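Appendix B, record 7
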Amino acid sequence: MAGFNTGYLPEPAFGGYGRDRLAQLHSPTLLVNGGPDDVAYQNSIDNHALLTVPAVLAGHATVGHSGLVSGEQATIGWQVAADWFGYVLRSDVRAGARFVGPDCGLCTEPEWIVETKGLPL
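Structure tokens (predicted):
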């Protein structure tokens, strides 16, 4: 699963869905935000903290809400998504290197802040 600039709100919304739904996830999850100017910034951090599945929280410090999906940095955002699915669905080691380990690809790129949990090194 991957979510860009999103997350469940503290109180159920949008059809009654709340953060309790996070406990039902059963596959590795990537959450991406656009930094402190992204309206979903804190929500993605809070959701990541509640996940019990292997997960990555990746934040680009300056793109804001939806900048990695439809803004000037969309090419970068879509490549992050492609690498995530390559890693999770195809066990692509090269794609996984963007997310795994202290010197992961995203970890060393300027403007990115990455937090992982439960991923195999």
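Remarks on this record: The CA atoms of residues 28 and 53 lie 6 Å apart. The two ends are 19 Å apart (CA to CA).
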